[in-house]
């Protein structure tokens, strides 16, 4: 939503707040609401042009669209002892816990819901617990009890939400979120990072564009050092969602009035939404049992007679009455600007829900005689997807070759890296041949079997990494097959488990086959063989001829360009063994780097897919179709939930379209 996010029903509720304060009498009646008319001072703000917009948001909340999309809410942020509880009481009329230290220890979502008829009732919910009560005076104790359940009986905090819903014919729909007061120094048994915990919790809420940030700052502190205002500026740099409320003007030191006046006028820390100064009931007023309506009268009298602040009252910058009017204006502006974005969000979510329903909405037929053809249909669809995966590598979740390629690249890199160690072993052998490798051959002669042993040992060591490559490919292919299975049979746990079992068994059999062939190929590579023409080509592409001056001689090649015995004799020297064996390793490398991946693709992917498709088509014969198509109860619940969401979103879409 746009940044100027204001609670959907704030206007009508704020009108009522003033009305309620005018009609609340004695301490026994503080939490009861009379049935008198709305105060006329606010009636002009609830005009026919505004009411349709408010009713639209009311209707959206009524159908529960706030389960899918964040609707506007108010978060009240302030340092400890800033007067935050008094402001909440002034805005909501609900008496929340008061006291010193951290009183609000969990986020408290306060939902006010208007009834067409009926008596006042409250419902508090948290961590699966839900309790309904009918006495407003129970709010304080129930909230404290909930906080003790979630945050413990000490002074810790929790980010678990407490929801307090008040239903009454005399309230209008509004959502307020009371957040813990900001603290800097741990006290008693508080953890050392309690300040950081509280800040993180507050930022989680005020960073939402749908939230109006009400920053509460006492008049008797330096505003530039107020953490609450600093956090609001961080979350809302442009100040489009922030309204600062100055409290406790009666506690200002004499001579500091001008400084406070400059703050309210935006001359110290400018805010686009500005400041409003209020004088709510203090602890002494509560101790003296001054009711809300009397407190409002005292507030107006205070500002009217104040030497410095009386002008603020005239400029709508002082009193809770002005605060209500300010929120009403912000509400109207916000709803008008937010409707296009709200519509876009609803349309996007409708598309998403419909896509999800494509998976969940198609259930099996109810008639048993139709279940067989239905099972055949979904099995064929699965088989087609497996065939496409093996043929092209494509599936709904991407291309399998994109996952296999890094595994094959790792195998290739290992082969290339071992070339260095192979060449080093050969050179070391040549340098120490007489001391370590010479047998009964005469001096200056060499035994080819010794060189052959170096190749055999080196090739034999490649078997382990080849098996690791096999394991990696087997895991990728098996997971991909299971992904396709889950997409096709997500609703049918027994069918899905049966197919999972088949996939695992087939992959295990294929793995045994491939492991045998890799071992055979490694054994073949230890034979040390290649065709003369293949090795001759390697020699011709190397610089060995230049090293030996072979080109100076004539008639050294047969008709097929392979060196004659004389030509071979010129290259048959121990000094050239490292270079010649390095050329032969290139042949080994080329055969292994291609053969192993080709073997794995053929047996682990293509043949495995073919076997799986064949077994799936046989599954239909003699199967307990009813049992295989038995749905997971969670899937049924998920389908019902998606349908409810679609119904809510569609209804919301219709409401917006008819009201625009």
Automatic annotation (TrEMBL):
GO MF annotations in UniProt: GTP binding; GTPase activity; microtubule binding
Organism: Cirrhinus molitorella (mud carp)
UniProt-listed PROSITE patterns: G_DYNAMIN_1 (PS00410), G_DYNAMIN_2 (PS51718), GED (PS51388)
Superkingdom of the organism of origin: Eukaryota
Keywords: Cytoplasm, GTP-binding, Nucleotide-binding
Family membership noted in the UniProt record: Belongs to the TRAFAC class dynamin-like GTPase superfamily. Dynamin/Fzo/YdjA family.
CDD domains the UniProt entry points to: DLP_1
A Pfam family the protein falls into: GED
Compartments, as annotated in UniProt: Cytoplasm
Keyword presence, Nucleotide-binding: yes
InterPro entries: Dynamin (IPR022812), Dynamin_GTPase (IPR001401), Dynamin_GTPase_CS (IPR019762), Dynamin_N (IPR045063), Dynamin_stalk (IPR000375), G_DYNAMIN_dom (IPR030381), GED (IPR003130), GED_dom (IPR020850)
SUPFAM superfamilies per record: P-loop containing nucleoside triphosphate hydrolases
Domain Dynamin-type G: 68-340
Protein name: Uncharacterized protein
Keyword Repeat appears in the UniProt entry: no
GO CC field: cytoplasm; microtubule; nucleus; plasma membrane; presynapse
N-terminal signal peptide: none
GO biological process: defense response to virus; receptor internalization; synaptic vesicle budding from presynaptic endocytic zone membrane
Residue ranges of every copy of the GED domain listed in the record: 574-660
């Amino acid at each position: 939503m746009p940044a100027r996010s204001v609670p959907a029903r704030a206007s009508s509720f704020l009108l009522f707040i003033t009305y309620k304060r005018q009609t609340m009498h004695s301490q026994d009646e503080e939490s009861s609401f009379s049935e008198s008319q709305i105060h006329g001072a606010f009636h002009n703000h609830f005009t026919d042009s505004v009411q349709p917009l408010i009713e639209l948001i009311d209707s959206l909340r009524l159908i529960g669209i706030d389960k899918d999309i964040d609707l506007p809410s108010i978060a009240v942020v302030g340092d400890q002892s800033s007067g935050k509880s008094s402001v909440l009481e002034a805005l909501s009329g609900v008496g929340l816990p008061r006291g010193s230290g951290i009183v609000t220890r969990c986020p408290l979502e306060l939902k006010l819901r208007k009834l067409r008829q009926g008596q006042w009732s409250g419902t508090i919910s948290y961590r699966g617990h839900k309790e309904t009560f009918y006495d407003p005076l129970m709010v304080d104790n129930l909230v404290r009890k909930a906080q003790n359940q979630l945050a413990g009986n000490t002074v810790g905090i929790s980010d678990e939400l407490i929801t307090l819903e008040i239903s009454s014919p005399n309230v209008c729909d509004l959502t307020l979120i009371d957040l813990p007061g900001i603290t800097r120094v741990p006290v008693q048994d508080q953890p050392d990072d309690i300040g950081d915990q509280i800040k993180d919790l507050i930022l989680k809420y005020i960073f939402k564009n749908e939230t109006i940030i009400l920053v509460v700052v006492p008049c008797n502190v330096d505003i530039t050092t107020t953490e609450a205002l600093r956090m609001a500026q961080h979350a809302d740099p442009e100040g489009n969602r922030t309204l600062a409320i100055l409290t406790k003007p009666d506690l200002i030191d004499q001579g500091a009035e001008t400084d406070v006046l400059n703050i309210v006028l935006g001359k110290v820390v400018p805010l686009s939404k500005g400041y409003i100064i209020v004088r709510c009931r203090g602890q002494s007023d509560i101790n003296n049992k001054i009711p809300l309506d009397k407190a409002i009268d005292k507030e107006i009298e205070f500002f009217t007679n104040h030497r410095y602040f009386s002008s603020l009252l005239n400029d709508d910058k002082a009193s809770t009455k002005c605060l209500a009017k300010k929120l009403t204006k912000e509400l109207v502006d916000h709803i008008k600007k937010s409707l296009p974005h709200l519509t876009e969000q609803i349309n996007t979510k409708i598309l998403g829900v419909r896509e999800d329903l494509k998976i969940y909405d198609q259930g099996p037929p109810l008639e048993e005689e139709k279940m067989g053809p239905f099972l055949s249909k979904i099995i064929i669809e699965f088989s087609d997807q497996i065939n496409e995966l093996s043929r092209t590598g494509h599936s709904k979740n991407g291309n399998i070759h994109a996952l296999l390629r890094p595994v094959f690249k790792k195998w290739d890199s290992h082969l290339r890296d071992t070339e260095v160690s192979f060449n080093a072993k050969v050179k070391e052998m040549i340098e120490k041949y007489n001391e370590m490798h010479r047998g009964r051959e005469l001096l200056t002669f060499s035994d080819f079997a010794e060189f052959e042993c170096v190749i055999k040992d080196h090739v034999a060591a490649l078997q382990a990494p080849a098996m690791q490559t096999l394991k990696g490919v087997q895991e990728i292919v098996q997971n991909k097959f299971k992904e396709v299975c889950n997409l096709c049979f997500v609703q049918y746990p027994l069918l899905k488990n049966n197919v999972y079992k088949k996939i695992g068994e087939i992959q295990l059999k294929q793995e045994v086959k491939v492991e045998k062939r890799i071992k055979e190929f490694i054994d073949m590579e230890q034979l040390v063989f290649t065709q003369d023409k293949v090795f001759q080509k390697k020699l011709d592409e190397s610089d060995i001829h230049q090293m030996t001056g072979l080109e100076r001689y004539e008639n050294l090649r047969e008709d097929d360009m392979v060196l004659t015995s004389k030509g071979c004799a010129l290259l048959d020297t121990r000094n050239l063994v490292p270079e010649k064996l390095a050329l032969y390793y290139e042949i080994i490398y080329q055969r292994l780097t291609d053969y192993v991946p080709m073997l794995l693709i053929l047996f682990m992917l293509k043949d495995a897919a073919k076997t799986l498709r064949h077994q799936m088509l046989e599954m239909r014969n003699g199967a307990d179709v009813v049992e295989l198509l038995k749905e997971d109860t969670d899937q049924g619940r998920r389908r019902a939930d998606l349908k409810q969401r679609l119904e809510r979103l569609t209804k919301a879409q219709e409401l917006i379209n008819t009201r625009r």
